[in-house]
Amino acid sequence: MEVRYVPDHLVLSVVVGSRAYGLETEDSDVDRRGVFVAPTPLFWRLTKPPTHVEGPLPEQFSWEVERFCGLALEANPTVLECLWSPIVEQVAPAGEDLLAIRRAFLSRRAHRSFTGYADAQFRRLDPERPRWKQAMHMIRLLISGLHLARHGEPLVRMDDHRDRLLAVRRGEVSWAEVQRWRAELTAAFPGTGALPGEPDRRRVEDYLAVTRKAAL
Question: Which InterPro entries match (predicted)?
Answer without folding.
Answer: RlaP (IPR018775)
